[in-house]
Amino acid sequence: MKTLVLGAGAFGTALGQILTENGHKAKYYDPVLGVSLKDCLDDVEILVLVAPSFALSDLLPKLPHDLPMIVATKGILDTRIFEDFTDVMALSGPAFADELKAHQPSTLTTTDERVKELFGTDYLSFDYTTDIKGVFLCGALKNVYALLAGLRKLERDTPDYEKNLTVFAEEMKALLSANGAEARTVELACGIGDLRLTCGLPSRNFEFGTILADNPHAKPEKTVEGLSALRKISEGAIKVPDSAINMKELIERSKEWA
User: Fold this and answer.
1) Residues with Cβ < 8 Å from 72, sequence gap 6 or more?
2) Active site residue 142
3) Is pLDDT above 70 for 184?
4) pTM
């Protein structure tokens, strides 16, 4: 299978490595590489989208809408951005790029069996759902709650950590339900699994949350997806039910930040 990985960062190259190891042809498009998107699209059979969420508004209109596309980008709150594409699949879950490159066992969530055919290995397994909206929302919400975990400086393997994580997961279920997705998707790898991975180091969102706890005027040196998602949620990108008390608290706290 001839694939184009859209995004040549750490996670994009990790997925590309798996494709290559599985006998597929993988090439990369990323503006920083200085290559033409049009040239990269020649002879491609499937797209793998791993570009950061903030770049999608510019990138998606330039892509062919009739090619199958696996979306591994996290931070997507508005699934309508894909409504003109004919064949969209999701791939998400708790795995850092260096773990995949080192062949460490991981479980990811997908919405299509073809993803398993492309990326299936003896160290990578999958759970499955048809709830693509829920998978996308989990990928954005877990980053926001990781910020909150950092603000509270939660430490793994402590009762307080587990108590907070349980509350965060229940709020994610309420948020998914309020926005037309399935609450049970939170129980999959893309939900509670990724939430657990992200609510602690070396997660960039968790780390910046700990920085904000000491300095609410701090500015990130690198992209922190949770900040972008939180800003969009504050602006009304999704419905926030009254039961999502921690999310509402975080929205209020974010007004103090620079």
Assistant:
1) 11, 12, 15, 48, 49, 50, 90, 91, 92
2) yes
3) yes
4) 0.95
